[in-house]
Backbone:
């Protein structure tokens, strides 16, 4: 029986130069939620008989996102490379809105926080839709999984 999901995820910590407590919490929550519930079916590997669950390694190589996919025994199945040019603006926008959000939760009114959070979710949702689009034909995934993966992609881009 096929189990097309991610059971373990690794981030290439060598590309992460700096993180604060807020970002670290976002990373932990995204990984926890992703492992708890996700849909992830690498199309080429599944066509060759891979059934999952999968281990996913995320890294940035030569300004491209590398998704290293292995089976539960650690056997490498495939690497999917995605250009990051189309993600630069969503990543920049997400960082900016998150920065405003983290500042707001320390001193703004509940209504101001809610307004910023709605904008943050909107940026995040559009980026997740872009990720689903970019993965089309490569990985079948759902929207919630794409949202969490986008959070992790952002973590890989933190430069301090």
Residues:
């Amino acid at each position: 029986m096929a189990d097309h999901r991610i059971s373990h995820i690794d981030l290439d910590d060598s590309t992460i130069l700096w993180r604060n407590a807020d970002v670290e919490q976002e990373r932990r929550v995204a990984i926890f939620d992703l492992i708890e519930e996700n849909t992830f079916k690498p199309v080429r590997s599944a066509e060759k008989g891979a059934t999952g669950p999968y281990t996913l390694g995320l890294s940035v190589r030569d300004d491209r996102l590398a998704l290293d996919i292995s089976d539960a025994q650690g056997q490498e199945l495939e690497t999917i490379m995605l250009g990051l040019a189309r993600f630069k603006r969503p990543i920049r926008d997400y960082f900016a809105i998150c920065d405003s959000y983290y500042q707001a939760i320390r001193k703004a009114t509940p209504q101001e926080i809610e307004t910023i959070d709605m904008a943050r979710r909107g940026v995040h949702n559009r980026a997740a839709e872009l990720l689903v689009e970019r993965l089309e034909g490569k990985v079948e995934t759902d929207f919630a999984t794409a949202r969490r993966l986008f959070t992790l992609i952002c973590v890989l881009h933190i430069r301090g």
User: Anything to note?
Assistant: The chain has a mean pLDDT of 90. The chain is about 50% helix and 20% strand. The chain has one domain: 6-156.
